[in-house]
Amino acid sequence: MKPYKQSCVDNAARAINAHQHAKGTVIMENDEDIEEDITDILPDLLHYCEKHKVDFDVCAALAKDHYRYEITEEEQTA
Fold it and tell me: How many CB atoms lie within 10 A of CB 69?
């Protein structure tokens, strides 16, 4: 199992909860709806990127690079 940074997990949970609150939906209470919650926030980010002329695919690729670096960093400190 890959290590993960708990602070990043906590940040993501806060972002998902804020998105749910902004939409007036139920705040995530269990792990069953996480995939649905993530699937719900991504199209909104795509719309946001389109409006602000940001290449979502480039952002996603950079995010994966950042994630890989963070995972490598965690493995080295474990």
Answer: 10
Instruction: Count other Cβ atoms within 10 Å, centred on residue 73.
Output: 12
DSSP, residue by residue, 6-41: HHHHHHHHHHHHHHHHHHTPPPP-SGGGHHHHHHHH
Q: List pLDDT tens digits, range 32-67.
A: 788 888 999 999 999 999 999 999 999 999 999 999
Integer-rounded Cα Rg, in Å, for the chain is: 14
The answer to whether 16 and 38 have CB atoms below 8 angstroms apart is yes
- The C-alpha torsion from 11 through 1 and 46 to 51, rounded to 10°, is 50
